[in-house]
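Page 42, continued from yesterday. The earlier attempt failed because a stray header line got pasted into the input along with the sequence. Redoing it now with the clean sequence only.
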Amino acid sequence: MKPHPSPVKALAERRGYPVLQPSGLRDPATHQPIRDAAPDVMVVAAYGLILPQAVLDIPRHGAINIHASLLPRWRGAAPIHRAILAGDAETGICIMRMDAGLDTGPVLLRESLAILEDDDVASLHERLAGMGAEMIVRTLGLVEAGTVVAVAQPDTGATYANKVDKAETRIDWRRSARELERSVRAFRPSPCASTSLHGTPLKIWRAIAIGDDSESDVMPGTVLSADINGILVACGSGCLKVTELQRAGGNRLNIASFLSGQSVAPGTRLGE
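This time it went through. Structure tokens are written below.
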């Protein structure tokens, strides 16, 4: 429960590079060390705060951001989560020059990546991070050579990836099984999709949508069966087969281990 330096900070300190960690950049006094460094360019990755225009104006070639979406789709804080939730077939990396807007600047380099059926936030983030690292190095080479081309984002097709609210992670069994399967993947490993069993919180780690999108005549959230293959739960349309879950305060368990210590009878209602 103690803070540890990121790998970037640890490497910088080992090599004797100064590391500054202001809580924000609104105070003009925090801008002076950046001015003193006289940077040619500034690279921003997963910073999480809006950079004031006065800071963006300091580097000779501006500030360049690594953004994990195909802009203008999914501007904002949680593009990977939102792409999975929406059922997008692909996402990607855009290297963009920052301006005063929220991820509205011109794109310098853009590459797409297919979203796999079993991708969650962790696996997709890992692949995008590797792609982004390679692309930012390539972009800096183009900037240095004076051959980079900035392409303005189109006015149409913009969507915003709002930060994930914990209330979103609670499963609404009235939704379709396909939507809920995507929710489980989009919120794994954190903050994790959740429901409740007999009033006790329950995290859902893995689940598979079963059946088509036709509406069921069974009350959503009702357990239809529970065995070593999974807990089958009725949804607004289709069924969700839960195969990995976690009790409050317990360990993450596969379905066989979970059911060995917890009986779940057909007819049980989840989420009550």
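Notes: The radius of gyration is 23 Å.
Reminder to self: strip header lines before submitting.
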